[in-house]
Amino acid sequence: MTAAVFGHDGPWTEEEYLALGETQQRVELFDGSLHVTPAPTPRHQRISRKLGNIFETAAEAVGLELLEAVNVRLRPGRIPIPDLVVTDPVDLDELVIEANAVHLVCEIISPSNAATDKVLKMHYYAAAGIEWYLLVEQETGALRLYRRQGSHYAEHSTTTRGQTLTLTEPVQATIRPEDLVP
User: Fold this and answer.
1) Comparing C-alpha atoms, which of 41, 94, 36 is closest to residue 65?
2) CA nearest 14: which of 80, 82, 64?
3) pLDDT per position as a tens digit, 109-122
């Protein structure tokens, strides 16, 4: 299906992927295969905006950058588009952000592709050395924060309605699930 949509046969190289330019869909590259998803729901975007507002202020306070839906090169040929990332200052005109500049990555779990965020991306982000991974459940607003241990993540905390997630690394931030999800 992807080949028909983009008029391409066989595995995709990173150069071919980047040559696609901007598209209406979210297109990610995983080891020669494209992963295409439709635009996020309004609920997803509301959560992303509210979290982005929190992280942007916190990141700027410590000289870091908050970016939304950018290409992150985990290794050659592996470029996901996380919902949010907290990074070192980067060239804002580059097509990709290198994984070694990323301190925290956040994915807002969509019911249609939950396994991608909970399994595939979690494994890939840890293997690339990204220290923190935050998963947000759309329906409940539950926040699951993971910290890298070697080449995988271990759950650091789970925050549900009525509780508060207090981050001290890589930024200082306080997040309440009920502030994200109506």
Assistant:
1) 94
2) 80
3) 987 778 788 888 99
